[in-house]
Hints:
This protein has 90 residues and is mostly helical.
Amino acid sequence: MDEMKLYDSILGPYSGVVVLIATILVMAIAILSRRARRQEFILVGVLTIVIVSAWGILRPTQTPLMGDAKTVQAMIGAGKPVLLEFQSPY
Length: 90
């Protein structure tokens, strides 16, 4: 029962982030466990920057009208099309 609470609160919503962190750690451990060349350190660094940048760009953000339900309700049915988005934060 406690495992489901852990999954629902941390691992479920943030599973993508957990997988990316695990991937970075596995890459770092792989090159640090043997005598790595300079190019391999640079490759892991570049891949880490790419992964972190992609997450920063692609993560969902709050829309401007998120907290203003009355404004959104007034827009609905006023003769102008309204796009409603329902999404999970991750």
